[in-house]
Design brief:
Layout: H1 16-22, E1 27-36, H2 48-51, E2 62-68, H3 74-85, E3 89-97, E4 100-107, E5 118-123, E6 134-142, E7 145-153, H4 161-174, E8 200-206, H5 215-223, H6 232-235, H7 239-245, E9 286-292, E10 298-305, E11 317-324
Parallel strand pairs: 1-2, 7-8
Antiparallel strand pairs: 1-11, 2-4, 3-4, 5-6, 6-7, 8-9, 10-11
Length: 331
């Protein structure tokens, strides 16, 4: 392994001293973006809105981008991400499962502190050969803290709540990670749930949960609500909120407060919700949830939608987090 302690001669590469040198407060900045691209062939001319929003105080240490219904050319997508982030970041790993893409970038000077990276996939839709629904997960250890990132696309359809819960259950049971990475805290792990086997877990994607209220009522609420304010009057009708509260999905996970409008379904190229004959009810289909083994390890800096990117019927969702690190031991 390239993490052999001998690299640095006397000092331990993953130990407390190095950790404190790079992260004096022992927190790492993690930027997560999730976006259903609607299989878009033409990528947005500019991805700065997605990755480098102007209100960011500082650059992050890791950028993790999950895409559902990805563009036909995955390589072009990864190249565009790299060009946007610039030369101070390297692509640590990229994995895909059909049209689900998951890409991890890390600050160039931090790559030595990452373990080998592992990935696994799960298919939840077996009807066709085209893998459109399922999950892809990427796992690695950074210093002494293990991370798991999952992006997924659950069953669509307003009423298919039960099927979405089945998708979740299949993924937590079948996502085969870690493979060779050591478990940093095996006493807290269970064989039936992959999300218990890592210190910090982020799960994001198009979960497809809808607002269970008539479209006309949802639009009335939206029209009298200001962006950035409390969206409680919408979220009381949100299927995912209800299922998480009932403990039937994302057990042990949290979600940051939502202060943005529903991210689905837009007419492409503008800010108008679905004017097709289907007249979809605006919904919070695109979400980021997280769990940690130690309370308060994950601090939310920002949770918002990206209204500037309009090439899909979904708006991207962005989460910025400060995540606790612990020193590791060299092999």
């Amino acid at each position: 392994s390239f993490l052999e302690g001998s690299l640095l001669g006397s000092g331990a590469l993953l130990g407390a001293e190095e950790l404190d040198r790079y992260f004096p407060n022992r927190r790492v900045g993690i930027y997560i973006a999730t976006w259903n691209m609607q299989g878009e062939k033409g990528l947005p001319a500019n991805l700065d809105d997605l990755l480098l929003p102007t209100d960011s105080e500082f650059a992050q240490d890791f950028y993790i981008i999950g895409v559902q219904e990805g563009c036909p050319d995955r390589r072009e997508w990864e190249t565009r991400l790299q060009e946007t982030l610039g030369p101070y970041y390297v692509m640590l790993y990229a994995a895909s499962h059909g049209v689900l893409y998951l890409t991890v970038f890390v600050r160039r000077d931090l790559i030595w502190f990452c373990s080998e990276v592992e990935h696994a996939t799960v298919t939840t839709r077996i009807i066709s050969q085209i893998k459109t629904k399922g999950a892809v997960g990427i796992a690695f250890t950074f210093f002494g803290t293990s991370f798991l990132f999952i992006t997924s696309h659950f069953t669509s359809g307003d009423a298919k709540v039960y099927e979405r819960i089945l998708d979740y259950n299949k993924i937590v049971e079948a996502l085969a990670l870690p493979k060779g990475l050591p478990d940093t805290n095996p006493y807290r792990s269970t064989p039936s749930d992959v999300t218990t086997r890592f210190d910090q877990v982020f799960w994001f994607g198009d979960f497809n949960f809808r607002l269970g209220k008539a479209r006309v009522d949802v639009e009335t609420i939206i029209n009298r609500t200001v962006v950035g304010c409390d969206m409680g009057s919408l979220l009381e009708h949100d299927q995912l909120y209800k299922e998480m509260k009932d403990g039937s999905i994302f057990k042990g996970f949290q979600e940051a407060p939502i202060h943005f409008f529903p991210t689905y379904k837009f007419d492409v190229g503008c800010d108008i919700y679905d004017t097709t004959s289907k007249q979809r009810t605006p919904s919070y289909t695109d979400r980021i949830v997280f769990r940690n083994r130690h309370a308060d390890d994950i601090k939310v800096v920002k949770y918002t939608s990206c209204s500037g990117i309009k090439t899909s019927d979904h708006r991207p969702v962005i989460g910025v987090f400060q995540v606790k690190l612990r020193p590791g031991r060299d092999k």
